[in-house]
Amino acid sequence: MKRLVLSVLLICMTLVTSILAYADTPQTNNTKKLSLNQAIDEAIKNSTELKVSDLDIEIKEIEYDKAKRNEKKYENSDFSLGTVEGFQLDSNMYSKAAQNALDEEKIKKDYTIEDLKYKTTQAYYGALQAKDYYEASNNNLTNAQKSRDNVKKKHDLGVASKSDLYMADISLADAKANLETSKTNMQSAYRGLNMVLNYPLDTKIELTSKFDEKKFKVDLKKDILTAYEKRFDMIQMNNSYEIVKLDFESNSIKYPSNTYVYKEKERNVAKVENLMSNSKQMVEFDIKSKYDKVNNSKRQIEIAKSNVDKANEVFRLKKLSYDAGMSTLLEVQEAANQSYSANIALSKSISDYNLSIIDYNKAVNIGTVR
């Protein structure tokens, strides 16, 4: 009995010691560290839309197998229907249509993945941008506080007016309000990213990627030719043409060229051929427009960088000038606001540039999916 009591006491003491030791151990938080590429992988992994796409593909595969079986059954029979349907079975029109539908469904899945990449990148950069806004607002608050402290000292010494002190107080209050607003916007941006990743909205995330400019070196003419073959809308148009042409050819076996059915099927072919010609021009227009947008966005980055350098230097000089009594406090505050706005504009221009590259690549490789 004594041994049993001692054993129980020993176990209790061990548990208490373990609990106390655990309590004294610093606990790691649940913050997820994510680079942009990791965020994209997470969005794809957690996507419910892609699960639906997989089911759609399975259905199209079943429909294709069914069409092949029906054509094989007809091929192995000892008789011919002698009808349009029979001619269409002979030409494997139904299995070709089912194969095209299957191929299109797979492309739709690819489009969904590319769209997820775009949305994730957009949300990730949105969160990075909001974080940059917050840091810029925080720096702006620090500068406003320093400026206010400096004005207060000058006022106490009798070398700054009461109005200067009031202006400094107003500027400081505005900086504090901007910081609160940027904090709220940052929280909203992070929730937006969590939504794209299919995470709980308030999941804590640490973004490890930076606002790096992506490289853009392409062969425009080659990309336009690639788009004619790879874009979903062009593939869909070519598939439609193949089926409409087979439909015309199978009907033309039975119906003479002077009949209504023949003319109707012939017109359908002409319609699709016209659409194909117009579609190529539209694809070229789309790609060239997005190419121009990328290059324009690149130029905007260079302008924004130059503006940041100039605005920061003007702010520095205005502070020195004010200390020397050669500038007003209002001029210093205006320079501070210009520096703040220039830094925010730079973040936005880099984000717009990187997203325009993704948009261009989508135009070349995926196109429009309906």
Automatic annotation (TrEMBL):
Keyword set, alphabetical order: Cell outer membrane, Coiled coil, Membrane, Signal, Transmembrane, Transmembrane beta strand, Transport
Keyword Membrane attached: yes
Major site of localization recorded for this protein: membrane
Segments forming a coiled coil: 262-314
Signal peptide range: 1-23
Domain of life: Bacteria
UniProt subcellular location: Cell outer membrane
Keyword Transport on entry: yes
Homology family: Belongs to the outer membrane factor (OMF) (TC 1.B.17) family.
Name the record gives this protein: TolC family protein
Organism this protein belongs to: Tepidibacter hydrothermalis
